[in-house]
Amino acid sequence: MLKTDLCVIGAGSGGLSVAAGAAQMGASVVLIEGHRMGGDCLNYGCVPSKALLAAGKAAQAVRAGGPGVEGSAPSVDFAAARRHVTDTIAAIAPHDSQERFEGLGVTVIRDWARFTGPDTLQAGGQTIRARRFVIATGSRPLVPPIEGIDATPYLTNETIFDLREPPGHLLIIGGGPIGLEMAQAHRRLGSSVTVIEGGTALGREDPEAAALVLERLRAEGIEIVENTQARRVGGRTGGIEVEVAGGTIFVGTHLLVAVGRSPALDRLDLDRAHVRRSETGIDTDDNLRSRTNRRVYAVGDAAGRGQFTHLAGYHAGQVVRSALFSLPARVRDDHIPRVTYTQPELAQVGLTESQAREKFGGRMQVLRVAMDGNDRALAEGTTRGFLKVMEVGGRPVGATLVGAGAGEQIALWSMMIANKMKMGALAATVMPYPTMAELSKRAASAYFSPKLFDNHLIKTVVRAIQRWIP
């Protein structure tokens, strides 16, 4: 019997953050991981996808050229691009390694865990009894029940980075962020790409912003078929067929399934721990604590409140606060940003325009600034895009950014919303010139401009003062 204060199941972003924080604060911690340290983000998700996108971006820079530079056909070395992916993972891996966490005093068990009771589980040939458990098992690719899928070779985000040669024609089922990021990366590295989406591509995002992304992808030669359900797949690698509603058949060499993810909870024997779950994750309260077993918490994808690495990290901080100090740690999601890392990038935090209109009606106003009004964007030739800020009572409730560097710029609005800051805080901030950050400053200024320059009373007061000033 191994007794501990905290037992963390899963060594992805959320689990590692909980384990590191708790151990460094003096708690005894057992960390269990049945597969790879670092979880999905390091090995199959954020890190490899952004590394491959970087390779595609470099190829596109040569192809497109720039001011005073004529574009030319890039010489793409797919094997070298693939090495960049593995080298990037290897550079980050030590931070998530078993050795590092054992150095922090964490007991690391490399095995799959399963509960044997409300306060016990088994892993690595041991029984672990803990005062608190944290389920941080992440998620796995969702594979829809399409006819023929079980007999057809297909890729997911967990296997596509293993390819040694570029696909001749990559068929992608799913037009969300993962599908479109992989579409652009592979198209830029030389593959033909067809994306098949059952609904609207990037359907969760602001339609106007999503349209700019899709326009760019189509201009680069990516075929995007929307509102079309895949009904049947067949063939083998090198000759894959996808038949859609209506009978049209798309033919390619490889198939990527990117229709979403589901929580990875099946191995845990949750019933033995009296932990209730749903299709989206563990049933938790606003402290991320199981409603049916108060010893158990869930973070990240397993909590069913969103599937982002940075969200899992945020959850981890809240759980450490609650589990170690018994302090209230009510989670919120209004300040959690999300980014689609295509080029142009699309970033969102808080409410979209349509969500804000539905919630606040006429009390909400939209502050809009176009990229082509930003001097840095003009100088670099990256003028396609815009910023929309949804404001209520002088505070932002949402921001939509599409264009160059949107993922970096959205952090400012996440901070504003997280800290319930007023537009005046940003209007008073001096931004370096010329930078893309001035886009946000202009949005804040747009809030105050009508109040200052279209105000009859202020004009009257200014004229009166000027008459009395020597």
TrEMBL record:
Domain FAD/NAD(P)-binding span(s) in chain numbering: 5-315
Cystine bridges: C41-C46
Binding site for NAD(+): G174, G175, G176, P177, I178, G179, L180, E181, E197, G260
Keyword Oxidoreductase: yes
Residue numbers binding FAD: K50, T137, G138, S139, D301
Keywords: Disulfide bond, FAD, Flavoprotein, NAD, NADP, Nucleotide-binding, Oxidoreductase, Redox-active center
SUPFAM superfamilies: FAD/NAD(P)-binding domain, FAD/NAD-linked reductases, dimerisation (C-terminal) domain
Cofactor(s) of this protein: FAD
Cofactor note: Binds 1 FAD per subunit.
GO MF annotations in UniProt: flavin adenine dinucleotide binding; NAD(P)H dehydrogenase (quinone) activity; oxidoreductase activity, acting on a sulfur group of donors, NAD(P) as acceptor
Pfam families per the UniProt record, alphabetical: Pyr_redox_2, Pyr_redox_dim
Superkingdom in the source lineage: Bacteria
The UniProt record lists the keyword Disulfide bond: yes
Domain Pyridine nucleotide-disulphide oxidoreductase dimerisation intervals: 336-443
PANTHER family: MERCURIC REDUCTASE
Similarity-based family: Belongs to the class-I pyridine nucleotide-disulfide oxidoreductase family.
Name of the protein in its database record: Dihydrolipoamide dehydrogenase
